[in-house]
Amino acid sequence: MCAPVSEPRAVQPEACPVAATAAVPAVMAPPRTRDNPLTRSVPGLIGLGFLVVMFAVCLGTLPWTLSTPSDSALPRYDSGTPREARLPPSWWGMDERDSARATASLSDDRLAAIAAETGLTPTELLSLAPEEAPEPLREAWPSFFLGSDLLGRSLAVRLLAGGGISLTIGIAAALISVCIGTIYGAVAAYAGGKIDAVMMRAVDVLYGLPYILLVVLLAVASDALVDEWVSRSKAKQSWMEQRIVEQWGEQGQQIDRSRARAILRESPDLETQLATTAAEIYPRRELSQRTRTALDVGTLLFAIGGVSWLTMARVIRGQVLSLKNQPFVEAARSIGTPTRRIFFRHLLPNLIGPIVVYATLAVPQAILQESFLSFLGIGVKPPLPSWGNLAAEGLSELNTVRSHWWLLFFPCLLLGLTLLAMNFVGEGLREAFDPKRGR
Fold first, then answer.
1. How confident is the model at residue 399 (pLDDT cuts 50, 70, 90)?
2. Distance between CA 256 and CA 242 in Å, rounded?
3. How far apart are CA 208 and CA 188, in angstroms?
């Protein structure tokens, strides 16, 4: 405390700083500054900007990369000539082999015109080193910004198409898993009792199964169904067995289908004759390449999304279990509010935070799973590109004799940067929606 003043005089401000400070009203204190929760994570903002650019470039150019130009019968992502194969990026530079391959890719008329302009023969043009090549020849060389693959297709165009396909599959699979997991977990938690126990035991059983095994089984089953629809082999076999049963029945002998199959195996000539007739009755169906590709992509999409919802179901179940005993839910239930309205009006708004965070983290997981499956050859199948099968194609081009590094480097670079950016965005959203991390 300040010392008492002996004389009746005005107290100087510096004589009692505590009194001077206490004299300031509390209402005049400056307000506490609050930050925007969406801007707390700088890596999340950087990742969001990168994703915006990546989505705009890959998804925006997808109609163009999948379209067929007027001067070609193939889509742009599959257009190319083997004469322009394995050329390096235009900004990287060429060695003697690359320049010879680029010169050999020119048409005979174009090469003859350059030879006449430079005063050299076509054979001499083919043997020139890159630094000795004349300017007309350099201008005529094929130019690929990110190089070309083993079939002479532009790697940049294939990366754009593959990025659009990988991102589309990843987003769609993540949305499927979020929808299934949210509905499943909410129903299990809200119902409770035996229903909750049975539903969650089913989740535990699915957790115990290998993920790759489930996806492979779904892919194999889908291919088998498509092949059967095209070839109609089962219908032909059934008709042949029924025909054998009828023929033996006309002779007064009753046999079953198993015996008919044995008779067909023992009589190759009879089997060939009946197979020819069955092929006329059940002709082979035609399935276009575009339809087959769409079926493969759809199968992969539902295979990834159909087995990725298990974690989401557990998260939503825990949230609903903590929310359904809250007073506002009990009050809504006591006044007779329908269950559907309780879920959409009271429970779902409180689940938006976990759903958004999990969906953001599920997208890179789905993209990585699609790329891994495509790398193994059971995902997106060539010639349709994705970052996974592009990396698989580039892996075979790495060798100790001559390495075409760009075929592996750029797909892995784009995939790695995209996954890293999505994880940064997911962590930023988690920090924004978590009240314990507020500043």
1. confident
2. 9
3. 19
Angle 327-328-332 from CA coordinates, rounded to 5°: 115
Please state the rounded mean pLDDT for residues 359-383. Answer: 81
Query: Facing residues of 80 across strands?
Result: 153
pLDDT tens, residue by residue, 274-306: 888 888 888 888 877 778 888 888 888 888 887
Structure token pair of residue 368:
């990585």
- Supply the angle between the helices 257-266 and 268-281 in degrees, to the nearest 10: 110
Q: What is 336-371 written as a DSSP string?
A: T--HHHHIIIIIHHHHHHHHHHHHHHHHHHHHHHHH
Place of tokens 């029924």: 242
Torsion of CA 363, 367, 368, 370, to 10 degrees: 140
Neighbours of 189 (CB within 10 A): 24
183-234: pLDDT as tens digits: 898 888 888 888 889 988 888 888 887 777 777 787 778 878 888 888 888 8
d(CA 189, CA 183): 10
pLDDT of residue 10: 46
Angle, vertex CA 236, rays to CA 233 and CA 241, nearest 5: 125
What's the pLDDT at 18? 46
Q: Which residues, 6 or more positions from 329, have their beta carbon under 8 angstroms from its beta carbon? A: 323, 342, 346, 347
Is the separation of the CB atoms in 154 and 144 below 8 Å? yes
Residues 6+ apart with CB under 8 A from 330: none
- Three-state DSSP at 282 gives coil
Q: What domains sit in the chain, N to C, each tagged with a CATH number? A: 155-229+287-437 (1.10.3720.10), 233-281 (no CATH)
Range with the largest mean pLDDT of 129-133, 260-264, 388-392: 388-392
Report the length, in residues, of the chain.
439
| Alpha carbon distance 332, 346 (integer Å) | 9
Q: Which residue has the higher pLDDT, 227 or 34?
A: 227
The SS3 assignment for 402 reads coil
User: Mind listing the pLDDT tens digit for each residue in 95-111?
Assistant: 888 888 888 888 888 88
**CA distances, 4 to each of 12, 15, 20, 278, 331 (Å):** 13, 11, 15, 118, 62
Measure the CA–CA gap between 284 and 382, rounded to whole angstroms. 24
pTM: 0.76
